[in-house]
């Protein structure tokens, strides 16, 4: 039955998304751009409205939206040609869905639980900013989580859990990314095969290290080797370059002894996360939304650059109208970056300004009025969000990069050579060709060079220390720049009339696609015991004791849930609450404290919870009732952490909390204390 439900839910979602692509009509000439633009617009408008008043549950709405979608698709629903033209969206969606279907767990890996927490904040449809599910008494107004709001809209429309919403939202986002890259490429490249190569390299590829991974990190044909290579492509500089398995590689990249890695003067940790890495990892994190704005902007720019030649006066009027709307949308992507991935806001602004500058150099109108108008509309829609976020977000200083923090040259070249290759080709082509695409390619290469220089000369100081000074800046800026430069530069070269340019441009595309090898290796060998459990909670429910605790909390009345704390982050704390749709007393304290400017009470409360679960706080019941805690969980995690504390906790909580045994295993009872 679960498989039937999964198939029906996915079909329901895809019908809605297919209908969105048809709402622009033939005048837009590109269903993929229309779909991306409408998803962006609808989410932004709903985000604005719900800051004024929450819309609550939306499950009553989907029968009407389904009827409307079927009406829009009434002539295409049985047309195989129509669905064939949907493949640029469906195939990336299917690739992401395959990963999420096989490995659906939303657990302590990376930022999975953090992302679930972001989505869970928006699931109830409360007036925004919503009540914070990790910090009782506060509103969630300290993070740029527009993409998580979008995932929650899916869940609220189709009456899904936060886990389902997050996994499906991830797949939709990857589908939109792939289709927008296709949209951009199709404006210059006629060949379906070349377009597919560009999309595959952008969505599933790695960086310049991808073809070197089997040579630098040798190992048996086991899943551990695949995991090492998947991570090494992302965390090479300062981390995996220090554990290369071959001597020539250690000499080439200057690997140091392990005792130097954590020293203040040790190798700098400078990561680059490609889209393919996110698909493997399963993190539904803000860089993905930054990619969406990037490729939406590039698809709009490609549409504006190539245009649709009008045949009649009416066609000319329609073209002007379509271009005006696209310019407004392009301008709106700049402020939208603040709510999706604030780190790339300056890069998104430079992208739009760079295109306007290009128009001026060609003697064309830069349409500043339309762009500024779109930016102002975007700011107006985001104003309710910004009025709170700007007061509570962290202020970061821009500083010059110290000499010790610069990227080592060999590592930098190993990562960036595909982009450098394409840049040089664009400049060489420009000297021998004066076509519009050749001139534009040279301009784009110049812009990419400028952004690379900026990323090596300044950084945003987020209080990272020593080897982590540039960590977040490089993580966000490089990760945004690499796929955009790869897709746009390769497209402009493949569009060249001479065949030589196409094959030369294919070299870096094929090279980064070598990142597919460890992905396929991982898919072939990694066990998948929880395949198909798209709620993401099977890592909990596979244990009978934990399953009963989770099932009880799901049907219990709303109330604060207390769970034990191991460290500061990357632990199962709040997993039961989030998967059950309940608010938590504590989330990951180090994350929450950082977002709120390190207030003492967050870390102090976390220490108190640790004492409670050690049985070392005689007045535990008084402390919990004062904070209106309704449920205290004793699960497998608490038992494994400190089994001796159960008896003490039972005595301390008895005056105010009723013990509800929900299961037992190996002579140990598991359950929940519920406030009397």
Automatic annotation (TrEMBL):
Annotated TM spans: 34-53, 170-190, 196-217, 288-306, 368-386, 409-428, 440-460, 480-496, 503-524
Keyword Iron: no
Domain of life: Bacteria
Keywords: Membrane, Transmembrane, Transmembrane helix
Full protein name: Uncharacterized protein
Organism: Chitiniphilus eburneus
């Amino acid at each position: 039955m679960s498989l039937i439900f999964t198939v029906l839910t996915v079909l329901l979602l895809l019908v809605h998304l297919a209908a969105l692509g048809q709402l622009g009509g033939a005048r837009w000439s590109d269903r993929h751009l229309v779909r991306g633009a409408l998803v962006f617009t609808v989410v932004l408008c709903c985000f604005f409205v719900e800051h004024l008043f929450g819309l609550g549950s939306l499950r009553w709405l989907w029968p009407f939206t389904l009827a409307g979608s079927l009406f829009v698709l009434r002539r295409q629903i049985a047309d195989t040609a129509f669905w064939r033209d949907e493949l640029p969206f469906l195939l990336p969606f299917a690739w992401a869905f395959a990963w999420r279907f096989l490995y659906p767990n939303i657990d302590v890996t990376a930022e999975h639980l953090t992302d679930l927490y972001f989505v869970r904040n928006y699931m109830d449809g409360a007036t925004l900013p919503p009540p914070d599910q990790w910090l009782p008494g506060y509103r969630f107004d300290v993070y740029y989580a527009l993409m998580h709001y979008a995932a929650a809209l899916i869940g609220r429309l189709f009456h899904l859990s936060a886990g389902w919403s997050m996994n499906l939202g991830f797949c939709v986002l990857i589908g939109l990314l792939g289709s927008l890259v296709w949209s951009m490429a199709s404006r210059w490249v006629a060949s379906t095969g070349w377009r597919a190569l560009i999309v595959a390299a952008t969505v599933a590829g790695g960086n310049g290290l991808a073809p070197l991974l089997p040579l630098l990190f040798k190992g048996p044909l086991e899943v551990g080797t695949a995991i090492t290579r998947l991570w090494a492509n992302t965390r090479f500089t300062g981390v995996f370059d220090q554990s290369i398995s071959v001597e020539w590689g250690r000499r080439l990249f200057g690997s140091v002894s392990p005792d130097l890695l954590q020293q203040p003067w040790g190798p700098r940790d400078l990561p680059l996360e490609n889209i393919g890495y996110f698909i493997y990892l399963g993190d539904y994190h803000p860089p993905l939304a930054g990619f969406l704005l990037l490729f939406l902007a590039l698809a709009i720019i490609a549409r504006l650059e190539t245009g649709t030649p009008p045949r009649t006066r009416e066609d000319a009027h329609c073209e002007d109208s379509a271009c005006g709307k696209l310019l407004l949308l392009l301008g709106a992507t700049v402020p939208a970056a603040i709510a999706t991935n604030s780190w790339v806001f300056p890069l998104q602004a430079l992208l739009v300004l760079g295109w306007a500058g290009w128009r001026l150099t060609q003697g064309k109108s830069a349409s500043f009025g339309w762009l500024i108008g779109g930016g102002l509309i975007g700011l107006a829609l985001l104003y309710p969000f910004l009025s709170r976020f700007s007061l509570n977000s962290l202020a970061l200083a821009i500083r010059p990069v110290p000499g010790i923090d610069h990227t080592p040259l060999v590592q930098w070249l190993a990562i960036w050579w595909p982009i450098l290759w394409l840049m040089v080709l664009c400049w060489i082509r420009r000297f021998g060709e004066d076509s519009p695409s050749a001139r534009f390619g040279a301009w784009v290469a110049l812009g990419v060079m400028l952004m690379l220089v900026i990323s090596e000369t300044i950084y945003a100081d987020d209080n990272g220390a020593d080897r982590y000074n540039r960590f977040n800046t490089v993580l966000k800026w490089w990760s945004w720049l690499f796929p955009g430069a790869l897709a746009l530069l390769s497209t402009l070269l493949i569009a060249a009339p001479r065949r030589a340019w196409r094959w030369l441009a294919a070299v870096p595309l094929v090279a980064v696609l070598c990142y597919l090898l460890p992905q396929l290796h991982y898919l072939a060998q990694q066990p998948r015991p929880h395949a198909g459990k798209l709620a993401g909670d099977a890592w909990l429910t596979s244990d009978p004791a934990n399953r009963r605790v989770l099932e009880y909390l799901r049907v219990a009345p709303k109330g604060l849930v207390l769970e034990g704390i191991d460290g500061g982050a990357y632990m199962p704390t709040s997993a039961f609450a989030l998967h059950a749709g309940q608010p938590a007393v504590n989330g990951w304290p180090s994350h929450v404290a950082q977002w709120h400017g390190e207030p003492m009470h967050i870390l102090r409360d976390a220490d108190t919870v640790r004492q409670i679960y050690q049985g070392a706080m005689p007045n535990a019941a008084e402390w919990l009732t004062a904070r209106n805690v309704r449920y205290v969980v004793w699960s497998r995690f608490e038992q494994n952490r400190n089994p001796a504390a159960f008896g003490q906790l039972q005595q301390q909580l008895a005056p105010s909390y009723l013990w509800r045994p929900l299961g037992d295993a190996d002579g140990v009872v598991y359950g929940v204390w519920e406030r009397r």
